[in-house]
Amino acid sequence: MEQSGGNIQMVMFTGEYRHNLDPKNRLIIPSKYRDQLTTKIYITEWMDGCLAAFAENEWNELVSKLNKLPITNKKARAFVRSILGKSDECGVDNQGRILLPQFQISDRGFEKACVIVGASDHFEIWPEKVFEQYNEESMGELEDFAEDLTELLQA
């Protein structure tokens, strides 16, 4: 959440954009997203083969939730380790670009073409080939996902 003139505003990332990594591993952030970011964002390796990018306040909220997980639980420790251990703070330069860390590019198989997808409180950065494959596999299950989520919301 960002504070603006005493009002608290939720960040809301929506839409799909396509941009290329430049030779120095910099990626242009969509201008629609830049308006909701400070000079730094947090990027972590995420689920389904993508990276997730969070504005500072949303990142702090996520870390706060992760800190509430029981450290005695093996799965909780592994999850926290994977999210925080594979994260990095990235600055946004004057041209609206971020420098993706080499380890994230290598781990997720980025080449040049990227897809940037809004996901409410964060946005995802996908290698184009991985995104296309994921989309192809999951779109046929969209109705099933909706039914399952409806059941979760009603519980």
Automatic annotation (TrEMBL):
Signal peptide: none annotated. GO terms for cellular component: cytoplasm; nucleoid. Belongs to the MraZ family. This is Transcriptional regulator MraZ. InterPro entries: MraZ, MraZ_C, MraZ_dom, MraZ_N, MraZ_sf, SpoVT-AbrB_dom, SpoVT-AbrB_sf. PANTHER family: TRANSCRIPTIONAL REGULATOR MRAZ. It holds the Pfam family MraZ. Its main location: cytoplasm. The keyword Ribosomal protein does not apply. Keywords: Cytoplasm, DNA-binding, Repeat, Transcription, Transcription regulation. One of its GO terms (biological process) is negative regulation of DNA-templated transcription initiation. HAMAP family: MraZ. Residues 16-58, 87-130 form the SpoVT-AbrB domain. GO terms for molecular function: DNA-binding transcription factor activity; transcription cis-regulatory region binding. Forms oligomers. The keyword Acyltransferase does not apply. It is found in: Cytoplasm, Nucleoid.
